[in-house]
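Reviewers asked in the last cycle whether our approach scales beyond single polypeptides. To address this, we selected a multi-component target totalling 857 residues and predicted its structure end to end. The input consisted of the following lines:
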Amino acid sequence: MIEFEKVQKKFPDGTEAVKQISFRVEKGEFLTLIGPSGCGKTTSMKMINRLIEPTSGLIKINDKDIKEYNIHELRWNIGYVLQEIALFPHMTIEENIAVVPEMKKWKKKDLEKRTDELMEMVGLDPNTYKSRKPSELSGGQQQRVGVIRALAADPDIILMDEPFSALDPISREQLQSDIQKLQQEIQKTIVFVTHDIDEALALGDRVCLMNEGEVVQISTPQELILNPQTDFVRNFVGERKSPWQTAVDVMVDTTKKHIVQEGTSYPEVGTYIIEGENQKYIGAVQNGEAIDLPPIQNDLHLRRATTVFDEYETSILPVVKNNILVGTLSYRDIVHYLQRQTKLENGVIHQ
Amino acid sequence: MSELKATFLDRQDMFWQSIWEHLQLSIISLLIAILIAVPLGLLLTRTKKIAEPIITITAILQTIPSLAILAFLIPIVGIGFKPAIYALSAYALLPILRNTYTGINEVDRALIEAAKGMGMSSFRRLARVELPLAMPVIMAGIRTSMVLIVGTATIAALIGAGGLGELILLGINRGGDIPLILLGAIPAALLAIALDNILRLFERTSAKSGFRSLATILVASLLIVTIPFVINGDDQADLVIGGKLGAEPEILMNMYKVLIEEETDLTVETKPNFGKTDYVFEALKGGDLDVYPEFTGTVITTLLGEQANSNVKQEVYEQARDGIKEAENMVLLEPMEYNNTYAVATTQEVAKQYGLESIGDLKVAEDKVTAGFTLEFNDRYDGYVGMQEEYGLDLTVKTMEPGVRQTAIKEGDVQVIDAYATAGYMVAYNLKVLEDPENIFPPYQGAPLVKQSTLDQYPEIGDVLNQLGGKITKQQMQEMNYKVDFEDEDAYQVARNFLKDNGFID
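The resulting structure, written as structure tokens, was:
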């Protein structure tokens, strides 16, 4: 879908923000770009919609050099969400959402329908909020509008530049889970820049970790944590807050030890998760009896996941990502993870 | 207050006319300034390298005194409405340009990036995002310019563009006629406040509607100022007669008008109160005027830049006539009898106190009297320079505007002034003219100055105007000036009565 080929960016002042990077973003993939400040992640992202032009190298969308597209049409097909939110303050919410569809000359009726649909999708009542000005909305609400403004003209690609970093923690968490739900519905190709490693690990199908203008490692969140390719990756990923705030994603047991296929004979002893067609979660059995276990999302924080364990008095839970069963999580997995995260030095425990 | 009311009632026609002219001048100038400065400001935000130099140029324009701009413009665009409009527009550029540039530049960078990233073209970004957001700042600039223009427009009267400045100038020329000055100054201030309030209303709505509110202002004001042009578009007179500021030129102009209209089929328009010699002369040269009354002495010293070769009236006239014919191809028709020369005048009391009869007598009172001279007189050979050389005088001199001298001598701030021999205040304050035995002041006889081409087109006016040749004595002129300046009689009526009483017309 999006392809970087030896893309380099040198600014007039001589700084080489991006050094010959190459990578691909697949169609429908959610890629998070992360790294310390000045690593070139934002520059890389802005080269996709040509807000910044590369010094050398090639960026292709659908196998076509982005310079061959009309620049405005290219941008109409790339939704853009900014850290500063940047809703136009003199326009109503409705007018803000209509900016790109208007340029694409949508019919008024289609536009109205689309606006209502999008607003409902992010939990904003169209009748209440449509004709309000951005300043009348809370920060979280504003960024919801920022997201649906980017989605309005149904682009194939969405770029998000630290979209939630200006929000308070509660709104941020809410929006993070909203964007995940949204992605399950809309399946866009998303490039998401962030400086928050937990956010990057929780949201990304893959995480692209950059440092000093180079891609250090690009892989799934699990891979990044389990197989860091350099010390930099290890340190950077390790720099997280408490392990309790880590998404369960990285602790998931993907060996399918505790998974049985639907329709086979279920073991008489122990708790097992049943997997159906297309890796769907079907249900669970305990000692041969069907029991009710809710699947947990792969991005759920560990602390919250443990409350689900308590609630259902179980020692194992199925983990899903985009409605697909990715593995299981047991108390044992959690303990192993916590063990890996802590070091024992002279009898003192360090995180 | 009652005096002001009386002056208002007396000059109601002129008052409303002046307000209207003032409004027209201001709005057209503002309009032109907006049409230049807003697009230019927008352009500069797209080409930032040249922005600062351009803004500096407009800042320099702003520092040139408005009077100087007018003087520069007269040789190029003539007199009247046009140069006034140009000068006022040039004046109004800076605040609008600077606010447009700043307003657009101060739009949040994130919004610009959002607009770009969403695929807006440069123009669309300007129209949909930058302009609406910068509109309040731009409007503030427009308001500043508007107040500036309404205030400065009072000087337009100096070059015959009319407006409230005409009342003020007239008031100053009359030796500080306070009610008349106020009648011009107060409405100018009120006009500025009123227009400012109207623009503020636009400013409030401008953030919402952006382009639309700007367009509304433009269209509305265009309508206001063009309607009168459409209504009275075609009353072009055959001849335009002008005159300097003051009663005497105005009376003479009207005499010319009456005579020409009575004795030929031509129609005449008068443009009184034209300020100084240079302005009127340039206007004649440029074709804005066809005739104006000038003095023989002035033609030689000011227009030709020569010295009078003689003190004999006829010889001075001939020198002036031949010189201006050769230099500018203009005809100085036959002069009238009276000699409105420079005179040195003092009060009867001072004359008695020091026994003053001639200019030379001032020597004895040199340390005790202060002289109030016009800038021009102070600097001329046929003025104070000559007085110093020929009479050996060394007076304490204060230079001042012509209109202020009479007040100064009346109040006793000065004891000696330079005066025009025929001026009305000579009668009013019973001033004594000191004799000039050395003849340093050449004769200043009034005569119509007209372009040869005008005479070729209307040969009949030469004979008509020459009827006044050798007529009108100094005393007659003084009396007429007194009637206009001090008894508030209408110049046209005074001129007409004189012509009638002396048998020029029936």
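Residues 169-186 of chain A form the longest helix (18 residues). We regard this as preliminary and will revisit it once experimental data from Aim 1 are available.
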